[in-house]
Amino acid sequence: MSDKFFFKGRQDARVNHVQSGYQTKANQKPGSKKFPLSLVVTSEERKQEIEAQLAEAKLYGQVTVDTRDGAEESIAALTVLLAKSDTVKVEKVPARNEPCICGSGKKYKKCCG
Q: Contact 4/10 with Cβ under 8 angstroms?
């Protein structure tokens, strides 16, 4: 008999993860020594500014100067890495029976909890 009569579910139950858009090479950190940023600027002065920003942020990049008319800067990758915020650490909330953090002297569960 054929599989047509006993078919349950999809024929290809496991979808290929490469074709569906998952990031398969997550260890490629942009701005590292192995994967430097490729940036384009319009003047030598701007190139020196960008190189100073790269050195300050401890990133690696290849900065090229494009002096043609109508040339545009391409530093979006650097801007994204510099604007990335650090991890926010929140103070631990006191337990129910500990003194309240507002300084009232009451237990946390009776005051602010």
A: no
Q: Which of 64, 72, 70, 65 is nearest to 37 (CA)?
A: 64
Is residue 81 a contact partner of residue 58, using CB atoms and an 8 Å limit? no
Look at the pTM and tell me if it is higher than 0.85: no
Q: Are 71 and 42 in contact (CB under 8 A)?
A: yes
**Per-residue pLDDT tens over the stretch 89-108:** 878 888 888 888 888 888 88
Strand partners, 62: 38
Q: Is 33 in contact with 60 (CB distance < 8 Å)?
A: yes
- The rounded distance, in Å, linking the Cα atoms of 7 and 10 is 8
The 10 Å Cβ neighbour count of residue 35 is 13
DSSP 29-66: -TTSSSS-EEEEESSHHHHHHHHHHHHHTT--EEEEE-
Joined together, the tokens standing for residue 31 give: 């701005």
